Structure formats: C-alpha cells, structure tokens
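Entry 12.
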Amino acid sequence: MKTVNLFAKLHIFKDCSEYNLGLWECPGFIFLVLGLVNAIAMISTYFIANRFTDQPEFVALIVIIVTAIIFVISHTVTQGFDRLAQANKMKTEFVSIASHQLRTPLSAVRWTLNLISDTPHPGSGVQPPIPTNYLELIKESNERMIKLVNDLLDVSRIEMGKIIIRPLQVNLYILIQKIIANFTPLARASNIDISLEAQETLPNVFADPEKISLVIQNLIDNAVKYIKGRGSIKISVQPINNSVRVSVKDTGVGIPANQQKHIFQKFFRSDNIMKHQTVGTGLGLFIAKAVIEENGGKIWFESKEGQGTTFYFTLPIYK
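Predicted 3D structure (tokens):
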C-alpha cells in the first residue's frame, strides 16, 4: 500500500490510492507491467527470429504475430483488473452512501424516542399521549429507510436481470393526475406550480402501472427538490407514432454539461445538486432507466445548468 501512495499523484494510479487497492489490483500498474512485457517480447522475438532466418520479411511477420497475441492477452488481463477496480470502487461508494442515508433517519428515530421517553409522567401514573409531530417524524424516518432498502433491492434485481415487470393497460392521464395530487401540498409549500398538459382521450399504454408510477414520482420529486425559490413543473403527455411520450420540465438548477453523460449511472449526483440537496442516493434515475426500457420505452433528457431540466420517456401504446 505504501508503494501505491508513492504513485498517488499520477492519474493512472488515482483509483488505487483513493479506494485502497493493492498495487497488483491497480489497472494502471498492470497496464505498465504488461506494456513492458510486450516490449521485451517484441525485442526477444526479433533477436530469436534473426538467429533462425535471414529474411527480414519473415522476421517482421513473426514479431507482428507475437506482438498481436501478447496485445490481446494484455488487453484481456487489463480489462479484468479494471472491472475489479470498478467493483471495489462501487462497493466503497455503496457502503458510504448506504451508511450515510441510513444514519440520518436512524438518528432521527433515536432522538425522537429519547424525547418521548424523557416526557414526564403525570402523578396519576398515566403516560400522556405522544405528540403528533413526534409520530410523524418517526413515520417519515421509517419511510426513508424502507425506500432506501427497496431501491437497493431494485438495483440488485436489475443487475441480475431479475426485474419483474407486470404490464397492463394503463391510462396515463388518470395515473399522472393522482401523482400530481399527492405532490401538490409539497409543491405549494415550496412555491412551485405543477401543471399537466394532456388530453383525456389519450390512448392507453402497455406497461407496469406500479413501476411507471415510481418513475414519474421520482422525476417530479427530483424536480421539486432541485428548484430553488419560486418555480414551475410542467408535465406533458402526447401520443407520437406507436408510443406515448411523457415529459417533465422544471425550472431547477439544471445539470452541468460535462456531467450529463453520467446522469443514469448508479450513485451519481452532479456537483451542483450536491450543493443544494445533500439527501439522496443517486439510484432513482438508474432504476427509472431500467424500468422504462424493460417496459419497451426509452428515456432521455435535455438540461442547461441554471435554467432547468426536461426528462422525457416513451411507452408503447396498448393494442
């Protein structure tokens, strides 16, 4: 490990020092070693071939063949170690995020229970009723923990290819209206207007209603959280060819252009979002992408930092 620290300033050894990988687990180090082996093999092949033939074309051919074989082997080995490094990185991020996200609601529950237990008992021996706000805090903390566990289970199922989709005929107009009704009190409290632009005669889609609801809830929830001050969320639903397209447009903080390619990756949260909202796992959009694609649709977005983001997804029309 001390040897790795000597190379910590080099970019190719960054992951080794950051995620406590051994030198032989570091893809950058393996790449250098295999490159050296490749060079030695080329030189050795050249001198050995020269001993058995004086035809330069034949010597060059042998060197090229040996080099190609060693290159393929080196590439395969490097990829294997790179996957190992990525797995270690993801494991470290998972432990860090899960610990942080569970610690906050658990601490809130402990703090609330301590307040309840410290409530003085009246002389009659009958304990006074627990304040409603205490119960709401415990309920909210419990729901946060359940959501985190459910998200982690969904990620596990997605990666194992075992996500379960139960497609039905779904009326998106009614589904989205119900979701908006649930978010309206929170949005009003945050000075955010939510509007729906859709026709009641929309064709039904063929999808899993429960999982599609979670996707829409996640998109609206993100929009609410990342709008600072007064803002708006506009949801639009319209048929396009053999699909129905849903868009969720907000006037939030937006996503930096240099980080947009990572937006659907596990645990990813852009830098400007982390400044405004520390609560979050970075799993919602990863799950949303998997759910939409498993239902036969596509998901994408457009965003400009400081001006807002629009997420789009499509679902096939029920026939």
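Annotation: Residues 1-13 have pLDDT under 50 and may be disordered. Residues 1-135 form one domain.
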